[in-house]
UniProtKB/TrEMBL annotation:
GO terms for cellular component: chaperonin-containing T-complex. Pfam families: Cpn60_TCP1. CDD domains: TCP1_gamma. It is found in: Cytoplasm. Belongs to the TCP-1 chaperonin family. Transmembrane segments: none annotated. Molecular chaperone; assists the folding of proteins upon ATP hydrolysis. Known to play a role, in vitro, in the folding of actin and tubulin. Residues 527-556 are annotated as: Disordered. GO terms for molecular function: ATP binding; ATP hydrolysis activity; ATP-dependent protein folding chaperone; unfolded protein binding. Coiled coil: none annotated. NCBIfam families: chap_CCT_gamma, thermosome_alpha, thermosome_beta. This is T-complex protein 1 subunit gamma.
Amino acid sequence: MQSPVLVLKDSLKRESGSKVQHANIQASKAVADIIRTTLGPRSMLKMLLDASGGIVVTNDGNAILRELDIAHPAAKSMIELSRTQDEEVGDGTTSVIVLAGEMLHVAEAFIDKHYHPTVICRAYNQALEDAIAVLDKIAVPIDVDDRASMLGLVKSCIGTKFTSQFGDLIADLALDATTTVGVDLGQGFREVDVKKYIKVEKIPGGQLEDSKVLKGVMFNKDVVAPGKMRRKIVNPRIILLDCPLEYKKGENQTNAELVKEEDWGVMLKMEEEYIESICAQILRFKPDLVITEKGLSDLACHFLSKAGVSAIRRLRKTDNNRIAKACGAVIVNRPDELQESDVGTGAGLFEVKKIGDEFFAFIVDCKDPKACTVLLRGASKDLLNEVERNLQDAMSVARNILKNPKLVPGGGASELTVSATLKQKSSSIEGIEKWPYEAAAIAFEAIPRTLAQNCGVNVIRTMTALQGKHANGENPWIGIDGNTGAIVDMKETKIWDSYNVKAQTFKTAIEAACMLLRIDDIVSGIKKKQPPGAGQAPKSKIEEEGDADNENIIPE
């Protein structure tokens, strides 16, 4: 709906009133409709052309929305929701957009009846509090040490993704990786840093079944001198450095004045002695492998290879941190500060292997690694990119459960239970807020309804049957099986959701809907660019009397 535009100045445009609210609601519904079909295990895929001309095939809500180029500010803020959800809990990126779109859709009727947006928002916030209370009531604790139930949960969370056809593979990888890097903080809390300590290495070729989680790390580097240095070391002693093993250059331009010819030889000798002293300090600790983030000169390479030490240079800072976590080494800034405790002895094997055309260094079989690499193999880059996206979601789900081990039913059962409870409660709410509260309760049914639509079953019959089963509050675990569209008990079919993901979805969706409803003005100060050559012709200057008087008359 195009709203009337009031021109304030030459470039400042303003839209106001309920027209803006209608426009925002329409924009949000349009965004929700784009990804509505990607919800559930029988969802459709989207093919996207990215800015660089590449193709992305995915059904991940966040991956789709971040490729969209949308000008409307309300639609932009909806896309931001999906990104927030992805960063916070890693899953539920499609649900949050669908739910927020539905919340705004049901609010449109109240805007038409001239309800004040603050009243609608108050009712929505009350509904959110009650919905979280219902989730707390139906949530079930889970034993994080029981691998079978953990595997089932991760599997059901990524059952909606493209890689669900590969069975337990992705769930296994995600669970292995997150349990490896998990750190106990005491009092039952666990910290799992997926971004920092889990690296996903994608190598095209081989089969997807060849993918595995390494008990250690790998990186795309070879030893500095392949012929002279060992490429396979069992139980290596590893030293990690953050300094160059080469002669220091001057900070700025340095001039050296040489009087005699021999001085040149003395100067070169000094450089050699400096590098030799650095290497001697390192070799004191009898390392087998030296890794530095900076450069390593040919001379240092010579001294190290003579002592039978393998060396790797110019490694990324993030990779170095992961190696330190995996083998128990400490990254040292100056070789003269090295101690025995800084040497990493936790690795069981260092090996350089050739995969495809490139060499990869593996530091594996670590005793108690707190960092790991997930090695993904597959037929094409597009497939690997999609598998990586799904793996990130699976790892986030596993991390959420390790942090907060509580489950809620999936397949739309949680939303239906919340909806039924809020409908019953709405009758006890007094005043004008009763109607928006009831509308919010109905909006929660958007998730099971969309699941039913994507399964291809009769939506009205399925929804009526589900509402009937939930109305008397008997079994909060009845929902839709996303594959067949049948109405089943979620406990029996083991379709679960993480409590964290579900609670975050509700909070983000309702808070965003409230924020967009309270916008009653859009003021834009952006000048429209004129096409080249469309500029106005310069006006002929008419001289006025005042101008003529002020003119400087130059004498001849």
